[in-house]
Amino acid sequence: MADEVLSQNEIDSLLSALSTGEMNAEELKNEEKEKKVRVYDFKRALRFSKDQIRSLARIHENFSRLLTTYFSAQLRTYVNIEVASVDQLPYEEFIRSIPTMTILNIFSVPPLEGRILMESNPNIAYAMLDRVLGGRGSSVNKVDNLTEIETTIMSHLFERSLENYQEAWGSIVDIDPILEEFEVNPQFLQMVSPNETVVVVSLNTTIGETSGMINICIPHVVLEPIIPKLSVHYWMQTQQPKERNEEEVNALSKTIRGAEVDVRAMLGEADMSIEQFLGLKQDDVIRLDQPIDQPMRMKVDDEEKFYIQPGKMKNHLAVQIIEELREEALDDE
Question: Which InterPro entries match (predicted)?
Fold first, then answer.
């Protein structure tokens, strides 16, 4: 804990009180000794620094944004998810704080050890289910008698959302989240010992007109191998190597090269009225705007890009690109 810094006025007042006898120096020393003694609960061990908690908050703020986009696309309704709090507390205390019947998704995150728990308030879970089944997103809490179909739909919906969790952690560690269990009663769930310290990230969630909480419980054993990476020094020192940037550029270029585009060789165009069009007969000639002594143009996705000339290649009609059509040429026209 940082020492309190006194202002100049406070220092002057303190010296004045000591000189006049209003305050005893011995009493100040005794108060200072008493302040150094703090009560520490070993059952509620704080194993993460404030710096590390802030890093976890940043990661899950990114996750909440990704999750908002994912559920908005899946449910086709208004969705808002944001981080409400990030706390560390004993696992037993967390289990007691959640409803006796709720939606529990337990997933592993290899290569990290241990498992992570995602608890969703039944109101939120049933609003999602109602939207997936074509409803308005109303919530009916009947989590104690979920049907097999409802269980399957819910578990698949949350399982696909884990791709966003993988992306959110990408700057720290590459994980592969795998949904292992779907449970409704927390009393049947024992991931770690009751006194084990866990980080609980609470996400304030709104689905349509229904609101509730999604809690993510991360045991200390999961984060232990990567705790050094959660410090501000790591975030500031971590820079993408030049090789990695080149790999990303190459991968992006490869993907772009594989994209399909609509390419058309323009023989020429002509404008006519509806009356002229309806009056066309066999052997009529339509005059195009393309001079015969000038190169044709090629359009790529409806934009003129190249000068071309027609020809044949292996008994097939073909065109040969002469040069790229510059923007200056288009402006001159």
Answer: CheC-like_sf (IPR028976), Flag_FliM (IPR001689), FliN-like_C (IPR001543), SpoA-like_sf (IPR036429)
Contact 77, 131 (CB under 8 A): yes
User: Is 112 within 8 Å of 172 (Cβ atoms)?
Assistant: no
Tokens of 201: 């990230």
Whether residue 163 contacts residue 107, with contact meaning beta carbons closer than 8 Å, is answered with: no
3-class secondary-structure state, position 147? coil
Q: For tokens 């084990």, name the residue.
A: 196
For residue 82, the SS3 value is: strand
Nearest to 73 by CA among 193, 196, 160: 160
Question: Which residue stretches of 258-294 are H helix?
Answer: 274-278
Of 104, 93, 87, nearest to 189 by C-alpha is 104
> How large is the greatest C-alpha to C-alpha distance in the chain, in angstroms?
120
Count the Cβ atoms, other than its own, within 10 Å of residue 117: 25
Give 40-59 as a DSSP string: --GGG---S-HHHHHHHHHH
Q: What is the pLDDT of residues 262-293, one digit of tens each?
A: 888 888 888 888 888 888 888 888 888 888 88
Contacts of 98 (CB under 8 A, 6+ apart): 119, 186, 215
With b for 16 or more beta-carbon neighbours within 10 A and e for fewer, the 174-197 pattern comes to: ebebebeebebebeebebbeeebb
Supply the pTM of this predicted model.
0.58
DSSP-assigned letter for residue 2: P
pLDDT in tens, 38-82: 565 555 556 788 888 888 999 999 999 999 999 988 888 888 999
Q: Is the bond preceding 99 in cis, omega lying within 30 degrees of 0?
A: no
Task: Report angle CA 199, 186, 119 to the nearest 5 degrees.
Answer: 50
d(CA 155, CA 151): 6
Per the CB < 8 A criterion, the answer to whether 268 and 286 are in contact is: no
